[in-house]
Amino acid sequence: NAGVTQTPKFRVLKTGQSMTLLCAQDMNHEYMYWYRQDPGMGLRLIHYSVGEGTTAKGEVPDGYNVSRLKKQNFLLGLESAAPSQTSVYFCASTTGSRQPQHFGDGTRLSIL
Amino acid sequence: AQSVTQLDSQVPVFEEAPVELRCNYSSSVSVYLFWYVQYPNQGLQLLLKYLSGSTLVKGINGFEAEFNKSQTSFHLRKPSVHISDTAEYFCAVSAYHSGYSTLTFGKGTMLLVSP
Q: Comparing C-alpha atoms, which of A31, A12, A51, A11 is closest to residue A103?
């Protein structure tokens, strides 16, 4: 039982490059989330999705785009990476607000 | 909008001593409360949750938390900690409005257990 899988686990980019982070869950969850974690800041919500084909902005959406073309996948895109986007990115999924979110192991992204 | 304040960024404690990690929240709607733990280089794992009912909730690894509505607090406690409890702990509040649920996290408390 894989749960939530994030790909890749590590990545180094140059400023201005683009990339896509993939999140896949095998629990048939409706809700999916992307967070970034920075030292002393906790986790901050970037974007989320309440079902296939839907997305919504979170607390820190600027510079990111997302897509949820399939229920099990939630993609996070950086169109033009900036050093301020160096962070650890976590994906999570859940069935609803009364249930805990299940987290992936994170993607460590460094932008030079 | 909801917010979460974890009052201590670091809590050092000796092994087998009791510990309390403090969490206060604010929200304009009914909330559900969670504590998560993060071990180094891993994702977050659920420790416990409060949805309704008894204000004292028990979680995994001997942790428990008490929901206090009047003080808007949800402090995490353990009567005797182990070295293996060294990790970062996050308090989170879930609010459900307009059909959508989002989770707001505190900034985390690093629990450092020494022998």
A: A31
List, as own/partner pairs, every contact residues A45-53 make where C-beta atoms lie below 8 angstroms and the sequence separation is at least 24, other chains included.
A45/B102, A45/B103, A45/B104, A46/A76, A46/A89, A47/A76, A48/B100, A48/B102, A49/A74, A50/B99, A50/B100, A50/B101
Beta carbon pairs, A and B, within 8 Å: 62
Task: For residue A37, give the nearest of B7, B92, B2 by alpha carbon.
Answer: B92
Residues whose CB is less than 8 angstroms from the CB of residue A62 and which lie 6 or more positions away in sequence, other chains included: none
Reported as a single tens digit per residue, the pLDDT across B47-88 is: 999 988 888 999 999 999 999 988 999 999 999 999 999 999
**Angle A87-B43-A77 from CA coordinates, rounded to 5°:** 45
Q: Which residues from chain A sit within 8 angstroms of residue B101, using beta carbons?
A: 31, 50, 94, 96-97
pLDDT in tens, B11-59: 999 999 999 999 999 876 777 899 999 998 888 999 999 988 888 999 9
- Is B102–A45 a contact, with Cβ atoms under 8 angstroms apart? yes
- Residue B96 CB contacts under 8 Å (≥ 6 apart), including other chains: A96, A97, B29, B30, B32
- Residue A36 CA to residue A13 CA, distance in Å, equals 16
